[in-house]
């Protein structure tokens, strides 16, 4: 079945004149005649009948016309959807853990000189991993290593443990502090739904410190806001987002804990040139 021939068939059925239909289709009259003859040979029935200088649909042509209209309508919708997909493909979809989204990601896009349209989604690492695998995101920025053979990832920056205190706090002027020195103050921790809660508990457990949080939150942005408003202090991985608040950050002496943030994407898939260039630029910058 030739979709162009079906278009010719539909146009001739409307105009009912070979010469006028050929002109409307911007093809030669012999070309139109050949297309209609090919369809008649394919279907084994005459599709048109002559009426003087004009033509009209035969009984068979009228029956087939119903299906032709449906096929052409579906084809038009398919073309429109394909155009929409091509337009959407030009937009790079970025899934980022929240600590990197407000500062680090915009800085990276600016440094690269990004001119492509993009969307940044704030998600947690497991959601980003899932989104990369099912094609929801093109590039991910994650807070820990994604253990999947279908994803490639490269570290882009390190983090370290710090205690965040409000301005005016007794610890404000310290350049460095031990974990035990923080234990006597009200602690704000990540909620148990956050992957960082396990990290906090592990850090305290390594030094035999038991901490009962005064409150908890899932997002580092919320935790930092609680610290800023005097609800307590928080020991957490240092991230750029902290600088956006009126707080003081003090590095904590720990047993050498170190964490990394990664740029990630699925190993295989169709990529736009700009998406590929952005990923390779940052891969090269850090290797």
UniProtKB/TrEMBL annotation:
Keyword Transcription regulation: yes
Domain HTH lysR-type, chain residue ranges per copy: 1-58
Cross-referenced Pfam families: HTH_1, LysR_substrate
InterPro entries: HTH-type_LysR_regulators, LysR_HTH_N, LysR_subst-bd, WH-like_DNA-bd_sf, WH_DNA-bd_sf
Entry keyword annotation includes Transcription regulation: yes
An example molecular function term from Gene Ontology annotations: DNA-binding transcription factor activity
Keywords: DNA-binding, Transcription, Transcription regulation
This protein's GO CC annotations: cytosol
Superkingdom field: Bacteria
Family, as annotated: Belongs to the LysR transcriptional regulatory family.
Protein name (record): LysR family transcriptional regulator
Species assigned in the record: Coprococcus comes
């Amino acid at each position: 079945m030739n979709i162009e021939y079906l278009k010719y068939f539909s146009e001739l059925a409307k105009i009912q004149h070979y010469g006028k239909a050929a002109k409307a289709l911007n093809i030669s009259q012999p070309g139109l005649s050949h297309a209609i003859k090919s369809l008649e040979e394919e279907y084994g029935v005459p599709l048109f009948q002559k009426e003087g200088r004009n033509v009209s649909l035969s009984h068979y042509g009228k029956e087939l016309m119903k299906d032709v209209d449906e096929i052409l309508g579906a084809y038009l919708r398919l073309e429109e959807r394909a155009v929409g997909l091509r337009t959407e493909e030009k937009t790079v979809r970025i899934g980022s853990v929240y600590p990197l989204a407000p500062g680090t990601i915009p800085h990276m896009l600016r440094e690269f000189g990004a001119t492509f349209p993009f969307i940044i989604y704030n998600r947690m690492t497991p959601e980003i991993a899932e989104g990369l695998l099912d094609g929801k995101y093109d590039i991910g920025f994650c807070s820990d290593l994604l253990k999947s053979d279908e994803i490639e990832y490269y570290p882009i920056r390190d983090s370290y443990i710090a205690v965040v205190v409000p301005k005016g706090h007794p610890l404000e002027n310290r350049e460095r502090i031990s974990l035990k020195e923080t234990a006597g103050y009200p602690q704000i921790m990540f909620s148990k739904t956050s992957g960082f809660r396990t990290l906090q508990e592990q850090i305290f457990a390594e030094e035999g410190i038991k901490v009962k949080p005064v409150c908890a939150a899932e997002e580092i942005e919320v935790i930092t806001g609680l610290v800023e408003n005097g609800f307590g202090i928080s020991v957490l991985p240092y991230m750029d987002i902290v600088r956006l608040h009126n707080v003081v950050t003090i590095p904590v002496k720990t047993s050498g804990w170190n964490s990394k943030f990664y740029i990630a994407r699925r190993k295989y898939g169709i990529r736009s040139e700009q998406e590929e260039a952005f990923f390779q630029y940052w891969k090269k910058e850090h290797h």
